[in-house]
Design a protein that fits this description.
Secreted protein; 1 helix; globular; mainly beta; signal; 8% helix; disordered N terminus; seven-stranded mixed sheet
Length: 179
């Protein structure tokens, strides 16, 4: 009897609407202007982004030397963790001078803090490795999966958002920022 109640509760929870998407802040690109790509071409286990358990994730690079990854959940599903964990690293343009250089080896990155999922920028003094194996997403394209959307634009623009939380980032030479 208890298992039947549990199954019923799970079924009701799965049918409940997901939280309303938060609006992107001013200055965030209009995602409807980007052509969607099929996420299937961008699935894999990233060798670069803290994926020790090799979960399947979205994994792409830009022609400008940035690679991004997050745990994959089909668009119809919501992440059981509550957030997708979008992380990008590489030759990130426009990092504000207020972001200190940690002195750590490796690339600059933007990543979500655990628990709060607030995004932060890190500056590192090391060189970035060549990102081999990640499919390239070209300018004018976007990828949407689960609770994450990323778009690549002209002139080194890369913008990602977790629309259910209204958190994300914009990477661009004129000034990269998180929200």
């Amino acid at each position: 009897m208890k298992s039947a109640r549990f199954v019923a509760c799970v079924a009701v929870a799965m049918l409940a609407p997901s939280p309303a998407a938060a609006a992107a802040p001013p200055g965030f690109p209009d995602l409807s202007a980007f052509a969607p790509v099929d996420p299937q071409g961008y699935l894999g286990a990233s060798r670069y982004l803290d994926n020790n358990d090799n979960d399947v994730g979205v994994w792409f690079s830009t022609s400008d030397g940035v690679v991004c990854s997050w745990t994959y959940f089909p668009k119809a599903m919501e992440s059981p963790m509550g957030w997708p964990g979008i992380t990008c690293m590489g030759d990130i343009p426009g990092i504000p001078d207020s972001v200190p250089d940690s002195g750590a080896p490796g690339c600059a990155r933007v990543w979500p803090r655990p628990v709060s999922s607030d995004f932060v920028l890190d500056r590192h003094g090391g060189a970035c490795p060549p990102f081999r194996g990640a499919a390239v997403m070209n300018a004018g394209q976007k990828i949407e999966t689960g609770d994450a959307t990323c778009a690549v634009g002209a002139n080194q623009l890369l913008a990602c958002i977790d629309p259910s939380r209204g958190k994300g980032f914009v990477l661009q030479p004129s000034g990269s920022w998180v929200f």
